[in-house]
Write a structure and sequence with these properties.
- The protein has a domain of 251 residues: FAD/NAD(P)-binding domain.
- Helices cover 32% and strands 27% of the residues.
- The chain has twelve helices and 23 strands.
- A six-stranded mixed beta sheet has the order 9-3-2-13-22-21. The protein has a six-stranded mixed beta sheet with strand order 7-6-16-17-18-15. A four-stranded mixed beta sheet has the order 1-12-11-10.
- β21 and β22 form a beta hairpin.
- α1 packs across α2, α1 packs parallel to α8 and α8 runs antiparallel to α9.
- The protein is globular.
- One of its GO terms (molecular function) is FAD binding.
- It comes from Kibdelosporangium phytohabitans.
Length: 421
């Protein structure tokens, strides 16, 4: 029997607090460059969340490199080549897509969030002893060196037993309320709180060719309603924009009435069965950004560093690119020089890039989620850009991540003096 007075002790190059998409992706990216990590995730089971389903083209390339993409395909990942815009009166407004982009995976792939987690964890088996995963680990506080300035790990409990996990670098992937970020005194600026949220019902897919490897977005006076094919295209997620003040009303609707409201917003649903999956979730929408991503030996990834509205489906994908760049920076920092100084490169590279994504997502969120009679009156004018090939390609490139540079493109591991221009 383990001595309760002596904690379990784990050590690796990197300690990752948070084992959702951001943390698991960081572990994969680190293992790919030969860096060991400990992943501490407080949830014992995989989460059942009705959001975070869409993987962008750049993310698919990263996941392929990490050996995760084949698991995503095996679990029913469904490819999406375009996104169409509709109005319940005017009908089809136009679409933009990825097919003409010069990328290894010129499409999105959609997979239920819980299955994406399962795919990430299934792929850990390919990394041998480089990744040590501990689910059900409740982190309680950071560990500092003798100077009290450098974070070297964390303490906590798992299965009722205390533990200490230490490494050269600590990564906070513990979400928007990150305890590690707060303990380091890093400010997290909430830049915009939107006056709506999304209700996320799921139902059988309607008999509609418009959903064949595509998403549908209904815009209009009530705001944005999306249809996202799931489970190999057999079901569809339907994010409904609802005013925050009406949350309790919408959650109290009987299934028949909720279905009527959904069909009213998105008429294409009329051919579906009307069976709504149980367990409705609502999703608040924020725009927030950390003032910095690095402090000493602590680095932030994913929602601990930035929270973005879901309109362009960028949240998970920003986290994966964070992981890719951070892993290369850590590898280079461990190979020589002062680690804390070396880690600053991650902040210099990723934070400005994410600022651009945050701005683009905010702009599109305001445009697509506008409500009121004027939206219906001017919808043909406001979405006329869909007829412009240059504008359509610009949106597709931004969403796909074509202008975001990976660690390889930045030359972090082969540019001793800094980032390749």
């Amino acid at each position: 029997m383990h001595n309760k007075l002596r904690p379990l002790r784990w050590e690796a190059d990197v300690v990752i607090v948070g084992g959702a998409v951001g943390g698991a992706s960081t572990a994969h990216a680190l293992a790919t460059v030969g860096v060991s990590s400990i992943v501490l995730e407080r949830a014992a089971d995989f989460p059942e969340l009705n959001r975070g389903d869409i993987l962008q083209p750049l993310s698919l390339s990263l996941l392929d490199n990490w050996g995760v993409l084949r698991h995503i395909k095996a679990m029913g990942g469904y490819d999406l080549v375009a996104s169409g815009f509709y109005h319940r009166v005017h009908g089809f407004l136009g679409e933009w897509g990825f097919e003409d982009l010069a990328m290894a995976h010129p499409h999105q792939t959609v997979l239920r969030h819980t299955n994406l987690h399962r795919a990430l964890y299934a792929a850990f088996a390919d990394h041998g002893e480089l990744v040590s995963v501990h689910r059900g680990a409740q982190v309680s506080s950071p560990l500092f060196d003798d100077s009290g300035e450098v974070m070297r790990g964390v303490t906590g409990t798992i299965g009722g037993e205390p533990f200490e996990a230490t490494g050269e670098v600590v990564v906070a992937a513990d979400g928007p309320s990150s305890r590690l970020r707060r303990s380091a005194g890093i400010q997290f600026e909430q830049r915009h709180t939107y006056d709506f949220e999304y209700m996320m019902p799921t139902c059988p897919r309607p008999d509609a060719p418009e959903l064949e490897h595509r998403t549908m977005r209904y815009v209009g006076a009530d705001g944005l309603t999306m249809l996202i094919p799931l489970d190999g295209g057999t079901e569809v997620r339907v994010p409904l924009q609802i005013p925050i003040a009406e949350n309790s009303h919408w959650r109290s609707l009987q299934p028949r009435e909720l279905w009527r409201r959904m069909v009213e917003r998105a008429p294409v649903l009329e051919s579906a069965s009307g069976e709504i999956e149980s367990g409705l979730h609502t999703y608040r929408v924020h725009l927030s950004h950390a003032e910095r991503y690095v402090k000493g030996n602590l680095c932030l990834v994913g929602d601990a560093a930035h929270v973005v509205p879901p309109t362009l489906g960028q949240g998970m994908n920003m986290a994966m690119l964070d992981a890719d760049v951070l892993a290369a920076v850590i590898r280079r920092s461990l190979d020589g020089g002062d680690i804390a100084t070396g880690l600053e490169l991650y902040d210099r590279v990723r934070r400005p890039a994410n600022e651009i994504v945050l701005a683009s997502s905010h702009e599109q969120t305001l445009a697509q989620s506008a409500t009121g009679p004027a939206v219906d009156e001017h919808v043909l004018r406001d979405f006329a850009w869909l007829a412009d090939p240059a504008r359509r390609r610009e949106v597709a490139e931004r969403v796909a991540g074509l202008h975001n540079k990976t660690a390889g493109q930045l030359g972090i591991l082969d540019a001793p003096g800094g980032v390749r221009q």
